[in-house]
Amino acid sequence: MYIDSPDTGVIIYFLSLEFIVPIKKKQQEVVGFLEANKIDFKELDIACDEDNRKWMRENVPGEKKPQNGIPLPPQIFNEEQYCGDFESFFSAKEENIIYSFLGLAPPPGSTEGRIIEEEPTVPNGDVSGEENKTAEETEKSEATEANEVHTEDNVEAEAESAERVTEEQEEGKEQAVTEV
After folding, report:
1. Mean of the per-residue pLDDT values for the chain?
2. pTM to 2 decimals?
């Protein structure tokens, strides 16, 4: 559920420009999922607020930035802690670990909560299959990174174009105010 509170944990940095369809669809999927699961969140627009855009860009970790260094929305944070981008969100959703991804405790009875509760342990206290799990996570992580690079390359040009349009609009507003 969207809430307008400074104390909100989950924050989605989004782009309000309607004409960049790939970004808009990703944003809608993230917001729709959070709303359907009654997870509180706050949206911060990077198109209309330069401070939001600057903060998002500075706080996305370097390894998550595309080659041009400009991360595209949606970017997800819990307070000031980076959670991930759309591809990371989608992977967490598919693996039923969305609450962990968001830095939240899973609700009682949820699939993720049951998975955490049911992890078998061996007599020495280690989680059984931990080595296999780590190898699988590494493979998934590498596949996700490859997909992110490909996806971000396709959308980068559109986002850069949108930013130029936004900047031109802002410059036009400034000129109009100056002329008055």
Report:
1. 78
2. 0.64
